[in-house]
Specification:
This protein is an alpha/beta fold. The protein has 13 helices and 22 strands. The strands form 4 sheets. Strands 5-4-6-7-3-8-9-10-11 form a 9-stranded mixed β-sheet, sandwiched between helices. It has a 9-stranded mixed β-sheet with strand order 14-13-15-16-12-17-18-19-20, sandwiched between helices. Strands 1-2 form a two-stranded antiparallel sheet.
């Protein structure tokens, strides 16, 4: 008995798609997949066919005025899901345009029904619904065709996918109300960047993930990246009160934090370029390795090789900890990409490597992957929540636009309220000399030292000094010495 007959869902095998669909396609259902030419409908339909065939189903791929089967298969051979042994043995490709042209919609229906019955097919793709609509004598006849397709699926328990090269710009269509599901594929341009996406407009009997989700087409085939904000949370993780404090192993700073960051919390380290945020993050990861806590550093600007070289100069021991499997360095190039793909890769590594500490160096780097920058706050919130659920203590760094000045402008709106803790790192000029200062603006549910301290970047990393008591208005960037 195949998986399709054993359960109420037909798994598509497309990474991420079943999650968006609410479990998969309903057995015996009729679905429309719409999209402009080039949006990925044919690849998606074939990918599902190959997955179903690999699961033991007999599948049928019917084309109408599409490219020849020889050319289609030639293009598919480069895809990771393609299996030559399944062609003809489990997947039958047939062209039905001449049948449609000579016998009309009734003849096409008879041909499809006969093919399903003869092959005992359980999954069918009909590629070219728009051609059927063009051949229909009237809108009523076209709706009748859709209804008859539903009758066939009810009789044969076969799931049918109808591919249509149309766009929703045409507005509501009556057939949308008749089918069990409506899936829209799009390939749009945002600025100069092309963005593929999928929207499940309708799914009967299930709770799909609504809204737009990123879609990628690679040599492996189609992959869907569900928006992290829409995913349901898993079981609650450990209680924060049961987790140990996470020390930086930066003496003065750990004293200010009363022993370190609360376990399982997330911290936002704010500061201008060059103030030492990356150094702080590396020391946070190195401090965890000294306590046998696996750490992951995710950065957008410095490659792992450069970070290891910095560690060697400062004696942080990251290379030795990396050899022991306690430190992992991930570089995400600040180029075009998919924001949810970055999040997914991070969470997979957190799970696989049992990460306890995470440094996400450069939240502003998210903007290079965010097709809609306004999403950044929601993504950071969902990511921070998921990491906390897994008991991970996280340090996010975010660059402030002004090197020196009285204003603190956070470039991503709404991020600071999400943070459990906030550290502020600033430059200040005193007597023609630049000093670096650090202060704690917020430490949720925990006491801390509120003084402003000077810190230096030495050949052993960051060293925090005593409170800078002899200077006023330090955080304005225009400090002056208090007269004695």
């Amino acid at each position: 008995m195949t998986e399709q007959r054993a359960t109420g869902f037909v798994e598509t095998g497309v990474p991420g798609l079943d999650r968006v669909l609410g479990g998969g396609l309903s057995r015996g259902g009729v679905y429309i997949v719409e999209g402009a030419p080039g949006s990925g409908k044919t690849i998606l339909g074939n990918q599902i066919c190959f997955h179903r065939a690999g699961a033991g189903d007999s599948t049928l791929y019917v084309t109408l005025l599409a490219e020849s089967h020889t050319r289609m298969i030639s293009h598919l051979r480069g895809m990771g899901f393609f299996r030559a042994d399944l062609v003809r043995s489990a997947i039958a490709y047939t062209s039905a345009f001449k049948i449609l042209e000579s016998t009309g919609l009734d003849g096409l229906l008879r041909s499809i029904r006969d093919s399903i019955t003869q092959r005992e097919a359980t999954f069918v793709v009909l590629d070219g619904l728009v051609s059927i609509e063009e051949f229909a004598p009237s809108a009523r006849d076209f709706k009748k065709f859709i209804h008859e397709m539903q009758t066939i699926t009810a009789m044969t328990n076969c799931t049918i996918l109808l591919l249509s090269s149309t766009e929703r710009a045409g507005g509501f269509k009556p057939e949308h109300t008749m089918v069990d599901g409506l899936i829209e594929l799009a390939d749009t341009v945002v600025g100069v960047q092309a963005q593929r996406s999928i929207i499940v407009r309708k799914m009967r009997g299930v709770r799909q993930l609504v809204g737009k989700h990123a879609m990628e087409i690679t040599d492996a085939g189609v992959k869907i990246r569900p928006r992290i904000e829409t995913l349901e949370r898993g079981p609650e993780g450990p209680d924060r009160g049961d987790l140990p404090r996470m020390k930086f192993n930066v003496g003065g700073l750990d004293f200010m934090l009363h022993g370190g960051l609360p376990g399982g919390s997330n911290t936002l380290a704010l500061g201008p370029s060059g103030v030492g945020k990356t150094m702080l993050g590396l020391q946070f990861i190195a401090g965890g390795a000294e306590h046998d806590q696996a750490g992951l550093y995710v950065g957008f600007y410095e490659r792992p090789g450069a970070l290891l070289e910095k560690s060697r100069r400062l004696g942080l021991g990251l290379e030795a900890a990396q050899t022991r499997g306690l430190v992992h360095l991930r570089w995400e190039p600040p180029i075009e990409g998919v924001l949810d793909a970055v999040v997914e890769r991070v969470l997979v590594e957190v799970e696989q490597r049992d990460i306890k500490r995470l440094c996400f160096d450069g939240l502003h780097g998210f903007r290079f992957h965010a097709e809609y920058p306004d999403r950044t706050r929601a993504v950071v919130s969902a990511l921070a929540d998921e990491l906390a659920r897994r008991g991970v203590t996280t340090l996010f760094t975010l660059e402030l636009p002004e090197l020196i000045g009285s204003d603190i402008v956070i470039p991503i709106d709404g991020v600071s309220p999400i943070a459990d803790n906030i550290l502020l790192m600033r430059h200040v000029e005193v007597r023609a000399q630049l000093h670096r200062l650090i202060s704690i603006l917020k430490l949720r549910d925990s006491a801390y030292e509120g003084g402003i301290r000077e810190f230096q970047i030495t050949d052993r990393g960051i060293v925090v000094s005593d409170t800078f008591e002899s200077v006023e208005q330090m955080l304005t960037g225009a400090a002056h010495v208090v007269p004695e």
